Batch of 2 targets.
Target 1
Amino acid sequence: MTANPICAECGSTFTYHDGTLFVCPECGHEWSGEAEASTGADEPAARDANGNPLADGDTVTVIKDLKLKGGSGTVKVGTKVKNIRIVEGDHDIDCKVEGFGPMKLKSEFVKKA
């Protein structure tokens, strides 16, 4: 027998299964078990400009000229970046761009090659 999940609203452990929903008797919160199962680590952390999932080691192409902060130069459209790493944060791609060195990019400005 599997244990019922803890209530997301109040943290109660006294939840029960009622038909297709889980119910918390303490706060009255109702939720489906499917929604809880779908929010997991199986969703990709980053997606490119076209919505394709990105993974560590992928090769991407820059789709817009990117001006560098704190330096002179621009990463031109069409620049290929190999062997990316996905990281948490606003700039979710960590990589080395040839001719510029290590930098962080936003996934919305690249497409999977």
Note: Confidence is low (pLDDT under 50) at residues 35-40.
Target 2
Amino acid sequence: MNTKHALRILVAVAGFSFLGGSAWADIQDPPGNDYGPTRKLGRGLANIMFGSSEIIVQPSRTNFYEGNSAAFSYGAVKGFGRFFVRLGTGLYEVFTFPFATHHGTYKPPYRSELPWIHGGYEEFPPELGFESHYRYSREYESGW
């Protein structure tokens, strides 16, 4: 075996190693990697500890869109219902956090709010207070 032949083999092996290594690196951060067991545990704990904020937030949102009568009747019932859903889901997620239980993933088991604006759930409970560093949690009125 001469040196030119050995050099060609070495270059080919190095080239295939580089291509194989780049393909392997591509699958190390798949799109579903954002949802893992630690996020599931955190989401469950947040739903248990802060799910009661739904009791305050839902009547307030209902009052903004539909008025006082709806807020004190429908909004209050909706708030308590969402609180109990969050509490039950939180307990479920805390006890099953090591396992991918929702369609083989760690994503939330409830319906997302994005396509179902009035019927879905945010991943984490709503925040209470005047300001937030999250842009999606507070609606600002224009007209000042």
Note: The chain is about 55% helix and 0% strand.
